[in-house]
Amino acid sequence: MYPELSLYIAGRFIDAQGRRTQAVHDPATQQPLGLLPWAETEDVEAAVQAAHAAFAAWRRVSPLERSDLLRRVAALARERAPEIGRAMTLDNGKPLADAVAEVLNAAEHVEWHAEEGRRVYGRVVPARLPGVRQLVVREPVGVCAAFSPWNFPFGQAMKKAAAAIAAGCPIVLKGPEESPSALVAMARLFHDAGLPPGVFNLLWGVPADISRQLIESPLVRVVSFTGSVPVGRQLAALAGLHMKRMTMELGGHAPVLVFDDADVDAAVALLARLKTRNAGQVCVSPTRFYAQSGVHDRFAAAFADALGAVKVGHGLEDGVQMGPLIHERRFQAVQALVDDARARGAELLAGGGHIDGRIGAHIGAKGHFHAPTLLAHVPADARVMHEEPFGPVAALSRFDTVDEALQQANALPFGLASYVFTRSLQTANRVGDGLEAGMVNINHSGMAHPELPFGGVKDSGFGSEGGTESFDSFLSTKLITQI
């Protein structure tokens, strides 16, 4: 059973009630799942007003009390992870095990913010004159307008909500219409845990209309967005016009550098999992692969075999490792990049297009299934070398020297995640220092832990979610000097 969908405003779940609605579909079968009510202008205003009204009291709530409530949310998330994950698989497409893991990982983020929120310290600054007391205190900023993506509908939204709420800021969240069930479940978690009305609000609707109304509202003080670079640029410009604080976690085009001395088998095993996770619809997914000449051919052959062995199908089928793309537009965008690269001379080593036929108990030909794809000898002018594929496509080229590898890796305006494989400490240090990325993974992938900052540089955004930096956007710094 797919859950009923709703808005959540001022502590109330609100169904369509004559509002416009949007059909939600299973991307693996294209079967309809439910109807999602869209927020009208008055709903957006009601959510902002509810959050603003709640701020007066919530900012004064003890950090220990806020911590206790968030811990209850985490406990409920763990209890309900199987049902939340199943609904997420239906409207998102990712395998059930991945969906459940997303909920459990988000619960860990909630617990971490619950604990760290008790440690938002100020300081006493020694004065220059006797009798003067100088205090630096950190205070919650106010209402947060948050925008979360469909690829990790529960995890990305929960990181924003946990940080804002732990800091004392109510939140109005505009969720992803493509994959809404997890966020309705999130609203239920906060509701059942006893969060006061107005501290968490959930909206759906026309993204451009809702984002403009939220950002332009004088009651909204901070904007948190995760999504594409083009949309992020637009929202950042609008937020800057109104002097809003911002956190922007935008897209990437993660380079992978495989050196001659790398453990190729270990690298291939890890990269095949990372490349096909959520069908490649991950902002930190490895996309541009550069292998040093001495290991290039071996890596290419092993990586092609690994991608070809990935089990693709409906996320509820046993053993499925990769599901469909979210919708037909995403499939066509991915396929266009593959076709362009091949037209420019790239060699197809694995995959290449749609997977037809029956997959498990479901008709795969009806879904947006794209085969895990490896393109080799990809020319530098191919679109896939410049545009984030956001799909199960890997583009492989070769390099000879460390300087050449860094030049190629840093050539784009993106700077989110990067990956390096080498047994040389000297190479690891040099490349770790030289990569223009917010996150560098050397011989493994370790970016998702709540105690670590997650964010990018250059066009990939600014600000971090996770780590002690997670609270920076939601807290203002006040100096109190007294004699």
Could you describe the 3D structure shown?
The protein has 483 residues and is α/β, with parallel strands linked by helices. It has 2 domains: 7-250 and 460-482, Aldehyde Dehydrogenase, Chain A, domain 1; 254-451, Aldehyde Dehydrogenase, Chain A, domain 2. The protein is 38% helix and 21% strand. The strands form 6 sheets. A 7-stranded mixed sheet has the order 14-17-18-13-12-19-20, sandwiched between helices. Strands 9-8-7-10-11-21 form a 6-stranded mixed sheet, sandwiched between helices. It has a 3-stranded antiparallel sheet with strand order 5-6-22, with no helix packed on it. Residues 357-365 have low confidence and may be disordered.
Give a quick precis of the structure.
This protein has 483 residues and is an alpha/beta fold. The protein is 38% helix and 21% strand.
Biggest sheet statistics: 7 strands, mixed
* CATH homology-level superfamily of the largest domain: Aldehyde Dehydrogenase, Chain A, domain 1
Domain module tally:
2
Average per-residue pLDDT, rounded, comes to 96
Low-pLDDT stretches: 357-365
> Rg from C-alpha positions?
23 Å
What is the end-to-end distance?
Answer: 65 Å
Q: And the CATH topology of the largest domain?
A: Aldehyde Dehydrogenase, Chain A, domain 1
Q: Which sequence of strands runs across the widest sheet?
A: 14-17-18-13-12-19-20
By DSSP (H or I, 4+ residues per run), the number of helices equals 12
CATH C-level of the largest domain:
Alpha Beta
Helix content: 25-40%
**Class by helix and strand content?**
alpha/beta
Number of strands: 22
